[in-house]
Structure formats: C-alpha cells, structure tokens
Amino acid sequence: AQTVTQSQPEMSVQEAETVTLSCTYDTSENNYYLFWYKQPPSRQMILVIRQEAYKQQNATENRFSVNFQKAAKSFSLKISDSQLGDTAMYFCAFMNLVTTSGTYKYIFGTGTRLKVLA
Amino acid sequence: DTEVTQTPKHLVMGMTNKKSLKCEQHMGHRAMYWYKQKAKKPPELMFVYSYEKLSINESVPSRFSPECPNSSLLNLHLHALQPEDSALYLCASSREGFLDEQFFGPGTRLTVL
Question: Contact A104/B101, CB-based, under 8 Å?
C-alpha cells in the first residue's frame, strides 16, 4: 500500500530565508504524481506545485521548487525568500492509477506546519 | 470565476437529524470531490464524481450520501451521523480528473452532538 510520510510536524523560518520541507513515500508503482498543497490558517487549500514521476526535471514555480529523488522516493519542497504569507500547513500528496482495479489512489501526508517569522 | 463555494460554513446537528452540505463551482470543471479533514490531520478522500457519475467511493459509511445533480453542483446528504463524524468537509473540483489541479472550497465545519 502507498504511504506518504512528512517527518517534520512543525518548522519555522526567518522571513527572506530558505526552508526545505521533507516528504517521503512508498509505492511499488512506476507511474504516479506528487503534489505539495498549502493550507493557510482558516483559508482554502491551494496547490503549490506538482511533479510527474516520469519527468526527471524538478518542478519549479516561482519561489517554490522540489527536489524529486525517485530512487530514494523522496519529494522535498524548497521555499526561497520566505514571506509571511507562506505561513501555512503544507501537505505532500501522492496520486496514482491502481492498475489492478482501474481506480485512483490519492493520499495526503500528515502535514508540516510552517511558520515564517518577521 | 475561479472559486469553489461551500454552504453552510458551519453546521451543528444532532445524531437523528438529516442535513445536506452544498458545493458549487462555475469553472466548467467535470470532476468534483468530497474530502473529510479532522483537526490537525490531512484530508481524506471520500467521493469523486466524474462527469456527474460517482467514480470513486472510498468505503464511506452509508450515512453519507453524495449527489451530483449537475456539473456545477455537488451535495453531501447526512443522516444519523455519529459524534466522530465531526470534521471539516472539503469540496474540490478539477477540470477533468485527478491529473488536473484541484481547486478547494473553504469547507463546512460540521459538529455532531
């Protein structure tokens, strides 16, 4: 069964600094997708970045980038030039098509609460 | 309009009540989702509708009954809930399916007494 692990329940970073959130996963599938979602306090969850497992190049979205290590099953999120608005819960998520049943599996990690300090 | 709206924002109900949660989007998305999120926990997928048809039911108890009357609207009917069903219920939509970005609503905070 697929699992997603975020080993850092809470982190803090000074404004303008860089922080890396870790995520590891376990799967026997070869084709899958990985996501980072941000859930600010009392606000809607939004997609930060996504990575297709078949792509070797790491995804980047402005100040957000990932370090995808497929062999190590690791998918960390780097936030550069941290801003106060980055304060949120960050969830790593895994999705794949389960070939035996033809359905999708979508699993979230337990989350990392990030606080950006002024 | 790039918004998913959910009503009500808060709901308190007794174990014998029947209530419904509503979710609406006008982005032309054809996939809609219900998630349950307990406090300080990640969202758990409950149901997925694709082109108004239920495509995924993650073994959710029958006291939760989803309905997709049209491509813009998703309901979750609640009946005979238990206190442990108290949670934030999130709705999301995406253009076609899981491979597309999901847009989340603000959620309905449900308390079952």
Answer: no
